[in-house]
């Protein structure tokens, strides 16, 4: 049976490409490179991965695909990220290479990342500040839109999930006409509030209290039972995007884009409204295939407001605006390449967490250079240096990266050193906030120094074709990477003593934290149509580490997917996947939460006739339920199901 299976579409071919490392990626080096040639290990989530996971948002997709990554909640049930020991403010999320505004709870609003028109996602773990500056101290996640080359495409899709009676509706349209290309996408989601069951009944608590009074062994977690969550708020989102490309001639191309996002979080007594506005214009001039220049302007704004009985209260107003100018010049010299770049960003923030009536802004100016030196066909060295200056804190930072790739007939070896930094945010410097009017102050510190790190990693990678071995015939890829991150001046909070008669916490720089880790991945596709992806991550933090309800890194984590494709007739094909994720015990050693968990998911994608796809899925297949619901618990109340329909009208 042919692996490409063109009657089914993209699935088998894109999976095979990811195993053979043929796709071109850009995030690791700011320039197009085959995945097998990327200077640092880059994880690629393909369009097939996105479709077969049946994910409704970026959080759901990443936790199914990337071990060592977990989403939880911060205050007010805003989403919080932990990836290999890094929080959301240390992992840079990009959409087509552009930053997003809206750092409210040390994270961007992940709901803004509409999956409806995403073609692939590239993930680089480890410090990437030499190319991307601040907030890339822990890694980069770049969400890249699809490029449609057909004369026109039109898709409509809808999905229902029994968890929270969640509905997702989407539509996209594109056309190519002469020198013009247009791509438009829309997505709407709605989920009802979900009441979480109590972890322990009053009878169970009474039984454990009796055992304790009698001196018998008892379960301490039942007595603690400090579930942080009892109800998940309902939400609605609207997301629309447009990208228009004009190819003026063979050398000059312009790309304009715009987007609007709206989300409402429905509380018991009030609603939070979130608005996002984005736009930009990019011009690219290519003298030839060896030289090109790129200039762009990008704007992004993210607002938050509180409404009670339909009236805006103005007590939680928040607005973050970013203007970014970008320039990039690339010049190839035979097999070698030079990249020169510079950026200017103006960052403005007005928030209820500042002193009343105040706002702050700062300018960030940077310049960077990278040289890609292909010494031989086997040996490649990539070096990068960058300078950043931040006006509000008057801080500057030099970062660098050196990556070596050596290819042997049977293995590829990578070694990488990179320095990372994260400048203190406006919130961390100027916050003046009474937490919920409880008499506890969070105080900013204008004297904060940039957070810095030194990242070391080595990796081996092997890709091979198995032939004439019967059932094992196929292609496989194996990657093993070890890394170490050493932090200096990590930004955290300490006891700030009394402030105006109130207890307080003060932002501070802290040293002495090291993160060690090992990532392993295996992918195999058999000629018979079977597919396997297995990913494992081990991570350990040492030093002065502060664990909170919002931050629960786990030592062991794993994700996997077993897939199978088969065409049964001219008008029907099946793409099946059994996937799962397993999270180990939190490193904090809390006794009132689960020691770890494993969740399975079964997904069936039915390809009917041409352009009609019916998705059915059972999530949490074995009905796992947390003992205690806390901010980093898996958000499940047991087994749920979903069904979705997608129609490509152009294929009909």
Tell me what you see in this structure.
- The strands form 6 sheets. The chain has a 22-stranded antiparallel beta barrel.
- It has 7 helices and 38 strands.
- Strand 15 (234-247) and strand 16 (252-266) form a beta hairpin.
- The two termini are 25 Å apart.
- The model is unreliable at 1-15 (pLDDT under 50).
- 8% of the residues lie in helices and 56% in strands.
What is the strand and helix layout of this fold?
Elements: H1 11-20, E1 24-25, E2 33-34, E3 43-45, H2 47-52, H3 58-65, E4 69-73, E5 79-83, E6 86-87, E7 91-95, E8 118-125, H4 129-132, E9 139-145, E10 152-161, E11 166-177, E12 180-191, E13 194-195, H5 202-213, H6 220-224, E14 231-232, E15 234-247, E16 252-266, E17 271-286, E18 291-308, E19 311-312, E20 318-333, E21 336-351, E22 359-374, E23 379-390, E24 395-408, E25 411-422, H7 426-430, E26 432-434, E27 440-443, E28 451-466, E29 474-488, E30 490-499, E31 502-510, E32 513-526, E33 530-543, E34 556-569, E35 572-583, E36 597-608, E37 612-619, E38 640-648
Parallel strand pairs: 7-9, 27-31
Antiparallel strand pairs: 1-2, 3-8, 4-5, 5-6, 8-9, 10-11, 10-38, 11-12, 12-15, 13-14, 15-16, 16-17, 17-18, 18-19, 18-20, 20-21, 21-22, 22-23, 23-24, 24-25, 25-28, 26-27, 28-29, 29-32, 30-31, 32-33, 33-34, 34-35, 35-36, 36-37, 37-38
State the end-to-end CA separation: 25 Å
What's the number of extended β-strand segments?
Answer: 38
Which secondary-structure class do the elements indicate? Answer: mainly beta
Q: Total helix count? A: 7
Please give the radius of gyration in angstroms.
25 Å
Unreliable segments of 5+ consecutive residues: 1-15
Tell me the fraction of residues in β-strands, as a range.
over 45%
Shape: globular
Overall pLDDT confidence: 87
Reported for the largest beta sheet, the result is: 22 strands, antiparallel, barrel
Helix content: under 10%
